[in-house]
Specification:
Shape of chain B: globular
Number of helices of chain A: 28
Number of domains of chain B: 1
Structural class of chain A: alpha/beta
Strand content of chain A: 15-25%
Helix content of chain A: 25-40%
Largest interface: A-B, 47 and 49 residues
Oligomer: heterodimer
Helix content of chain B: under 10%
Distance between the termini of chain B: 5 Å
Strand order of the largest sheet of chain B: 2-3-4-9
Distance between the termini of chain A: 62 Å
Order of helices and strands of chain B: EEEEEEEEEEE
CATH topology of chain B: Rieske Iron-sulfur Protein
Largest sheet of chain B: 4 strands, antiparallel
CATH superfamily of chain B: Rieske [2Fe-2S] iron-sulphur domain
Number of strands of chain A: 41
Radius of gyration of chain A: 31 Å
């Protein structure tokens, strides 16, 4: 006769327990019934911030879909809240009136968002951030709103802030304490983290107690703090901590302190048939808010219940965790501060790079560590911490890899026990990964998909890859799609180019027809259009539907579906006449903003789509290409024209560059600059391509610079002595980049991938003997250029929206 | 339900979409390269992006603002977390005109 197990809670703890139980033959022993508040299968709560940020689709965070319950004969009451557990009658009651008897019951209730006492929390625009539904409500509220305040600067609050930031909001984090993440970090680390987050655009307010959420007409307008200050915002996310869900247990007469009290057997001291695991439970005076302890508890309880190891006990978890806070790598373990006189603290701080490392050593062993901004040092430390290994005499070896080699990481993975957790997000151990590899998962992609390792925050992906290599050796299969030029056509760029040339494919639809089995792929269309235009020039058969809207209408779509228009102003040098034209167009077409851009051009923002052709006509200036994946602008300083220091004519050179290369398509946009002296006022060394005049009458050409989402100083390609030579080598580099870069690969990634020496060999030293050919091909593209604003407008795009027509009363088909 | 005549099918470029106004309602009508017609609400539920300006491939449209992707047959989102689009019946009459039912 099978016993009946009721699990209350279908979150990470409850579902994990059932998974572990199934692995141990639990199905033979128990009929399993689960209750879940939320009407879904179970999902990985850790990844909610990624959903908020738009990096994950909600369906990707599900651990077990509803089908899994069916397949395993588990009765799931999804969307049913348990309202009572009657321990005398041994029954559980749901809020739908249903009753389930049990032999054993497990409380896996998790925890709830804690909302501190303050006024105004009932208004529209106030959210907590705990469930998929919370996430959904927040996302629905964002459109049309600009500024969000997150109350709480702990891990979850920062995760919420990241999500909102990535959705384009201005985000303020309001924190009660004097540094961020005070539960995990010491003050120095908190300060360094803060500095890094500020650079990412977050605004941070410390030591602020919010006493009221201000509103108007029932919707949020701001916050008021205890010190009297206020902050304007359109929405508020409260993420000030969690509280174990214990109400149900209290009402069932169980001992509850902060959480539901359990012993080493994970059972309540009041009732041997009642167990509690996860965030709702309290063991040895501790409650946990991280996943690793939950995995430990689920395993121990599964061993007891399945009777595989009826005597298994839980002795608390040593919490070592890797966190991904807004793209900042952070690992914390054990204690945060030295607490005895004999404790040693070994620290290293480098605020500017966002690096902070601290290890607390007691009796020659690690009892705590904080590692910020150095993911490589983490696995070794976690391992030493977990095993209580003796630390090296030279403590510096704890913080730095003194051998400089990469061998150690692999070696340390090799020596890890099978139970060692590799993926914290999904609780996947080394053993799980090795089993999957032995079971046939031979590429990183397949391995990650089949085990779910690496599909969370992604920080462990390197380790997963290393384990794959360890286990499969030569049998590792590289997933081919990572080399495809576009996802929908299964060919790497060189092969794709060869096929396109050999078969004479001059249109995007022809490529789909011939090389992708006729299957159109939206994500592949713009990349193919760009490549075909690069390859065929004038012979390219332009299909408008393959272009992104910006390239269909030669303007840049904005968040409110209006467009911005940038006329070309060569080298940034304009005239009163041009300015008048621009001003007139701005007036006539109701530009919502007229802005000088970072590329020293004038942007007319907020132009209606249907007005675009009229704006171009009125401007009567060439298209400035602020929209295409193409050469954009060449920023200049005044060089020798007016500057006291100028040693080269940067303005003249910039104009020549812009006239020559205007509109040249490429895998990604190219931003250029010329500087008249090494003072570099036009920032030429951080552009895709830049030229800097030196006092010797020469020009240094830089390639692969970046000052956008990341900053990189360009590498010197070569030094030449005339404007003509600058134009020649710039053009040759552009063509080389156009032919060899992946779609959407900026020059700075391309140069790093290929290596500047290699680029220099081909482009400058011409070791492959293709220099003349590259020159000729870029020249052909220059010659093929036509100003898109002079084209006949694409009528079906620009014709006005239809006015209402007379309704046709009878259906035309005569039904 | 009302019925609207949007005129010749040629008014919608092959492989693209176009916004029409039927009374108070804005509707995006798509004409795929395979020759099928679809009609959905005009704005993306996520950020009100103009769906007719999106990229169409097979029977999908990608919103130009944040790349949420929808199946034109069902209106269901296939990439991103977003509400389902309202879809409307649309057909070509015997005289080659596009007939929309909203």
């Amino acid at each position: 006769m099978k016993k009946k197990l009721v699990v209350i809670g279908n979150g990470m703890a409850g579902a994990r327990l059932v998974e572990e139980l199934l692995l141990r033959g639990g199905k033979e022993r128990f009929d399993i019934v689960m209750f879940g508040d939320e009407p879904y299968g179970n999902y990985n709560r850790i990844l909610l911030s990624n959903v908020l940020a738009g990096a994950h689709d909600p369906k990707d965070i599900f651990i077990n879909p509803l089908r899994w319950y069916e397949e395993n004969n588990i009765t799931l009451h999804a969307g049913v809240r348990v309202v009572a557990v009657d321990r005398h009658a041994k029954i559980v009651r749901g809020d739908n009136g249903g009753v389930e008897p049990y032999d054993d019951v497990v409380f896996a209730l998790g925890s709830s968002a804690f909302v501190p006492r303050m006024e105004g929390t009932a208004q529209e625009g106030v959210f907590v951030f705990r469930t998929l539904d919370d996430c959904d409500s927040i996302l629905k509220y964002i459109p049309g709103r600009k500024t969000a305040a997150v109350i709480g600067g702990g891990l979850l609050g920062l995760e919420a802030a990241r999500g909102l930031l990535q959705r384009g909001m201005n985000v303020h984090v309001v924190h009660l304490m004097n540094h961020l993440m005070e539960l995990q970090l010491d003050r120095t680390a908190g300060g360094i983290l803060q500095r890094t987050l500020l650079q990412m655009g977050l605004r941070i307010h410390l030591e602020k107690a919010t006493c009221e959420i201000l509103g108007q007409d029932g919707a949020v307008t701001g916050l008021r703090f205890q010190d009297g200050g206020t902050l304007d915002c359109d929405m508020v996310v409260v993420s000030a901590g969690i509280r174990p869900n214990t109400q149900l247990a209290r009402e069932a007469g169980l001992t509850v302190a902060r959480g539901i009290v359990v012993g080493d057997d994970l059972a309540s001291p009041d009732d041997p048939h009642v167990f509690a695991i996860g965030e709702c439970s309290e063991h040895a005076g501790k409650t946990y808010g991280l996943v690793a302890p939950l995995w430990d508890q689920a395993r121990v309880l599964a061993e007891r219940l399945s009777a595989r190891k009826p005597g298994a006990t839980y002795h608390g978890s040593r919490v070592a965790t890797k966190l991904k806070v807004m793209g900042v790598d952070l690992a914390v373990m054990g204690e945060r501060e030295a607490s005895t006189e004999n404790d040693e603290e070994v620290t290293y701080a480098e605020a500017k790079r966002g690096v902070y490392k601290k290890v607390i050593v007691r009796d020659g062993r690690i009892v705590g560590a904080i590692l910020l901004g150095d993911p490589e040092a983490a696995p070794g430390l976690v391992q030493s911490f977990d095993r209580g290994a003796e630390v090296p005499e030279n403590r510096a070896e704890l913080l730095f890899r003194l051998d400089g080699g990469d061998g150690r990481a692999a070696a340390s993975l090799e020596s890890l026990p099978d139970e060692a957790q590799i993926c914290n997000c999904n609780g996947i151990s080394k053993g799980d990964i090795l089993r999957a590899v032995r079971g046939g998962a031979r590429s990183l992609k397949v391995l990650c998909e089949s085990t779910r390792a690496g599909t969370g925050c992604g920080t462990c992906k390197g380790d997963v890859g290393a384990l794959l290599e360890l286990a499969a050796g030569d049998a590792v299969v590289e997933d081919p799609s990572v080399h495809y030029y576009v996802p929908g056509v299964p060919l790497p760029k060189p092969e794709l180019v060869e096929e396109i040339r050999a078969r004479g494919l001059t249109s995007v639809s022809a490529v789909f027809r011939e090389l992708a089995g006729g299957k159109e792929d939206t994500a592949s269309k713009p990349g193919l259009a760009s490549l075909l235009k690069t390859l065929w020039g004038k012979e390219y058969v332009d299909e408008r539907d393959a272009r992104f809207i910006n390239d269909r209408v030669h303007a840049n779509i904005q968040r409110d579906a209006t467009f911005s228009v940038i006329p070309r102003i060569y080298g940034g040098v304009t005239s009163a006449d041009q300015l008048r034209k621009i001003a007139n167009a701005a007036d006539k077409y109701g530009a919502k903003m007229v802005k000088i851009t970072g590329g020293q051009r004038i942007d007319l923002l907020g132009i209606k789509k249907e007005d675009l052709p009229h704006v171009w006509r009125d401007l009567d200036m060439p298209s400035g290409h602020a929209y295409s994946k193409a050469f954009r602008t060449c920023k200049t300083c005044v060089g020798t024209d007016f500057c006291r220091y100028g040693v080269g004519d940067s303005t003249g050179l910039g104009i020549a560059i812009e006239e020559r290369f205007q509109g040249i398509e490429s895998p990604h946009k190219m931003k250029l600059a010329t500087a008249g002296c090494p003072r570099n006022c036009s920032e030429a060394t951080t552009k895709d391509i830049g030229a800097v005049a030196t006092s010797g009458g020469t020009w240094e050409i830089y390639v692969g610079g970046a000052a956008g989402s990341r900053v990189r100083k360009g590498d010197i390609l070569c030094t030449v002595d005339s404007h003509d030579s600058v134009l020649r080598y710039m053009g040759r580099f552009m063509q080389y980049y156009r032919e060899n870069a992946k779609y959407l690969e900026r020059t700075y990634d391309f140069v790093e991938r290929v290596g500047i020496e290699e680029v220099r060999k081909v482009v400058v030293d011409d070791v492959e003997g293709i220099g003349a050919r590259l020159d000729a091909d870029i020249e052909a593209s220059v010659q093929a250029y036509a100003d898109p604003w002079k084209e006949v407008p694409h009528v079906t795009q620009f014709s006005e929206k239809l006015e209402p027509l007379e309704p046709v009363l009878a259906r035309a088909s005569g039904e | 339900m009302s019925t609207w005549n949007l005129g010749s099918v040629e008014r919608i470029a092959l492989g693209e979409g176009r916004t029409f106004r039927a009374g108070e309602l804005e509707v995006a009508v798509f004409r795929t390269r395979a020759g099928e017609l679809f009609a959905t609400q005009a704005q993306c539920p996520h950020g009100q992006g103009p769906l007719a300006d999106g990229i169409v491939g097979a029977a999908r449209v990608v919103c130009p603002l944040h790349a949420y992707t929808f199946d034109l047959r069902t209106g269901c989102v296939t990439q991103g977390a977003c509400d389902t689009l309202r879809t409307y019946p649309v057909e070509v009459s015997s005289t080659g005109e596009v007939i929309l039912h909203v």
